[in-house]
Amino acid sequence: MVPIGSLVAGIMMEFLGRLNTIKLAALPCVAGWISIALAPSFTWIMVGRVLTGFACALGTSPAIVYITEVARPDMRGSLISSGPTLASLGMVIAYAKGAFMNWRLVSWICIIYTVVPVLLIQLFVPESPVWLVSKGRIEDAARSLRFLYKKYPQPEHTDQPLSEMHLNALLKERETKIAEAQRNVNRHGEQQSKLRGFLKPTGYKPMIILFWFFLIQQFSGIYITLFFAVTFIQDVGTEVNAFTASIFVGLTRFTMSLLNAWLLKRFPRRQLVMVSTTGMAACMGVSGLFTLWIKEGTTTMTWVPVVGLLLYVCSSMIGLLTIPWTMTAELFPTDIRGIAHSISYSMANLLMFFAVQSYRTITDLLGGAYAVQWMFAVVSIIGFLFALFFLPETHGKSLAEIEAFFAGKSQPPAQRASAERTAKTTVTEHLIRSPSREAKLKEVELMLKNKNGA
């Protein structure tokens, strides 16, 4: 249901907004948990899983797009990676509750996890200013910007309260998004054709890159080993308790996801992916060798494959497990970002489905667990080469700069940034300072045209 939910979310978030789509996702989620909690038979449990799976994708896709649009470039990767971090924490909590509570009670508790965030969003979170501007809602975009930046620290050289002019200076990245969104609105206030957006280099190039990136991610064995942790550990022939080891796998993933948020803020994406794939290849190579020796009875060090698996999970969390998901929204331009993210997210989950379902087939085809681990090592090496030669660097870059990269603009970055700042400062100042109900879309368009010499 996740691929289907992702595609539906892409359409809904373009017309209803990012936050409204998240709120609506709570409806099938609550219905699904009620179905599970009251299930008189297995059929109703499956109905509940279908509804919750659909709701999961319906709420996740717009959340990633929203974070992409409101976050600063230096914080974007860390904030998006907080999603998988919280998902890992949620899994640990769910497993812990399942160990001590009846599963029906756990289902009722999960409804609370669904409803409370929706209420908090309704009360405290403003809609994406990028989406608001793309719909011509200039006044709402200005209010959203003021809310998002009202807690910014005031400049060190003054004791005066943060003025609107100071706010303009602090909104450089938001200004870029506004100018970008304005360019995607024609003189009638309607968005350009979504189809034309996918036919441009800024549309199809990111999609091709993400397809190969996710294909490498899935067949490097990351999700196969996570979903088949117990089976995988049993297959390598270790004497370590498989269920105990699987718990350590989950805890390792959660711990490393916390570190990953810091890494994404400090280091370039390509470097993290190359370090990650190198570690994964080494761990799976050594683990596969010891698995073969255990099978042949030439070693008693049966704990080595388990340690190799844990280090493999650590290595994957540095880059290859998380970074493809952070790129599903930031690589695309505003006019198609919602739909493009949903398509790429759906594509990623389809690849995950086929990779996970093929585990047994691959094991039988290659002749054993040791060969599967070596295959994972080889694919990881391919991932290193992919990052080295094809993966674009997005760390610290604004969404406008990423779009310019795929568009192949030849203008020097410094010159282009200077021109954008000249045009966008007045636009954002207009948005922030305009009296309520007086900001008009045509006025902003005219200002943009005058600045750009149109």
TrEMBL record:
Primary localization: membrane
Keywords annotated in UniProt: Glycoprotein, Membrane, Sugar transport, Transmembrane, Transmembrane helix, Transport
Cell compartments where the protein resides: Membrane
Signal sequence range: none
SUPFAM superfamilies, A to Z: MFS general substrate transporter
A Pfam family matched in the record: Sugar_tr
Cellular component GO terms held in the UniProt record: membrane
Gene3D superfamilies: MFS general substrate transporter like domains
Entry GO MF terms: transmembrane transporter activity
Ranges where the Major facilitator superfamily (MFS) profile domain occurs: 1-395
PANTHER family noted in UniProt: MAJOR FACILITATOR SUPERFAMILY (MFS) PROFILE DOMAIN-CONTAINING PROTEIN (PTHR48021:SF24), PTHR48021
Name recorded for this polypeptide: Sugar transporter
Species this protein is from: Anopheles darlingi (Mosquito)
